[in-house]
From TrEMBL:
Residue segments, region Disordered: 105-128
Provenance organism: Meiothermus luteus
One Pfam assignment: Ribosomal_S9
Subunit-level organization: Part of the 30S ribosomal subunit. Contacts proteins S7 and S10.
Biological role: Part of the top of the head of the 30S subunit. The C-terminal region penetrates the head emerging in the P-site where it contacts tRNA.
A single GO molecular function term of this UniProt record: structural constituent of ribosome
Family that this chain belongs to: Belongs to the universal ribosomal protein uS9 family.
Record-level GO cellular component terms: cytosolic small ribosomal subunit
Gene3D superfamilies: 3.30.230.10
Keywords: Ribonucleoprotein, Ribosomal protein, RNA-binding, rRNA-binding, tRNA-binding
InterPro entries: Ribosomal_Su5_D2-typ_SF (IPR020568), Ribosomal_uS9 (IPR000754), Ribosomal_uS9_bac/plastid (IPR023035), Ribosomal_uS9_CS (IPR020574), Ribsml_uS5_D2-typ_fold_subgr (IPR014721)
Positions with biased composition (Basic residues): 113-128
Protein name from the UniProt record: Small ribosomal subunit protein uS9
Gene name of the record: rpsI
Amino acid sequence: MEQYYGTGRRKTSVARVFLRPGSGNIQVNGLPFAEYFGGLVKAVSALEPLRQVDATNRFDAYITVKGGGKSGQIDAIQLGIARALVNYDGDLRAKLKPAGLLTRDPREVERKKYGKHKARRAPQYSKR
């Protein structure tokens, strides 16, 4: 069976995306896409790479995602789908790259430092 793979990462989330020719069935961690993200409006942005190349109903996607929260997982899935599509056909890169769908967002959480409340928040200054 033909299968195309892409890995997506965002914050602490990692998504493994497997695209197979099919009818548009998308499963995330064994659940239907809509059920896994349970009505989150942002979730539809994860499928943006498929819309950009008019492949919404040409592929079935089997996705495993772990780590982070739902928002990071959605962005990780988006990158994974885009990379899997480029794996399928390198010419699709010309459509996905200008839309910013092949760029990994490098922002990570900054670590907390000692003597601070958070990463940068210092204790309140007291004059007396």
